[in-house]
Amino acid sequence: MLQRAVIEGRVVDADARLALETRYGHFTSMQIRDRRVRGLDLHMERLEAAGRELFGVGVDRAEVLGSIRAVLGDDLRDASVRVFVVDSDGPRVLATASAPVTPPDRPHRVKPVVYQRFLPHVKQAFGFQQLHIVRQVAREGFDEALLTTEDGLISEGAITNLGAFAGGRLLWPDAPMLRGTTMRLLERMDVPQEWRPMKVGDLAGFDQVFLCNSWGVMRVGEVDGVALRQDETMMTRLLEHYDGVAWDRLD
After folding, report:
1. Sheet holding 79-87, edge to edge
2. Which of 98, 124, 153 delimits the end of a domain?
3. Are strands 36-38 and 79-87 parallel, antiparallel or unpaired?
4. Bridging pattern class, strands 161-166 and 208-213
5. CA 56 to chain centre
6. Are both 71 and 139 inside the same structural domain?
7. CB-based contact 235:208 (threshold 8 Å)
8. Distances (CA, A) of 194 to 165, 176, 197, 203, 235
9. C-alpha 76: how far from its chain's center?
10. Which phi-psi region, left, alpha or beta, contains residue 225 (left: φ > 0; alpha: ψ -120 to 50)?
């Protein structure tokens, strides 16, 4: 347990020390609009499952909701919120709020990077490796990285899930990954769906490739310099399904 911590020469209080000393935990990210969130039960399921795996105990739904309301305060109606469960003499719930994010309405450029996460099904707090990868590809002009094995088998994006359409079917990579909340909401779309191994070289043969995370749904226009097809019909159907997902109240 830290006794004292200093940031830029200033001694910080106990709550700031907690943020500095906790390096083990999990979290979920959500976009709040008008104090509502899509897929609240899915966020709670994620926190519950990860809590039991990492700490041997789930989460208190009332505490999680109370933390979200507290970080929003009386003034924030729209925000990007993260709820962390971290180890500090047992699991503790932390929440942060920042400016809301809307994904840019343009095709994304993505780059394959050979990297596989440990415990990929857990949304792990303090992910240095993924942040480093995202920053590296951004310096090269890419919007996102695709995490692959040495032979090019795709699992997920660094901060997204990847999906595709081919012949009217919705395709997902059959690989170890974090099944994001937005991905799980898109799985409810009323179209034939299939999980299959996907390699980077397969993407150019699909009708539409997209990314999804808590920000929303983003089309992919290019993978490592290779232009991809754009299917406006299927993309419109996908976005209409996502836009039609009900928002859950937090108050």
Report:
1. 25-32, 79-87, 91-98
2. 98
3. unpaired
4. antiparallel
5. 23
6. no
7. yes
8. 10, 15, 10, 15, 17
9. 22
10. left
Q: Would the CA dihedral through 220, 96, 54, 41 be positive or negative?
A: negative
CATH for 20: 3.30.470.10
Half-sphere exposure at residue 192, Cβ-oriented, CA atoms within 13 angstroms:
4
> In which domain, by residue range, is 121 found?
108-245
Token code pair at residue 39: 């897929």
Q: Are residues 51 and 175 in the same domain?
A: no
Radius of gyration over every alpha carbon of the chain, rounded to an integer in angstroms? 19
Task: Extract the tokens encoding 23.
Answer: 């390096």
Query: Average pLDDT of each block of 10 consecutive residues along the chain (251 residues)?
Result: 68 73 89 97 98 96 96 95 90 92 93 96 91 96 97 96 97 97 98 97 97 97 97 96 96 81
For the chain, the distance separating the N- and C-terminal CA atoms, rounded to the nearest angstrom, is 35
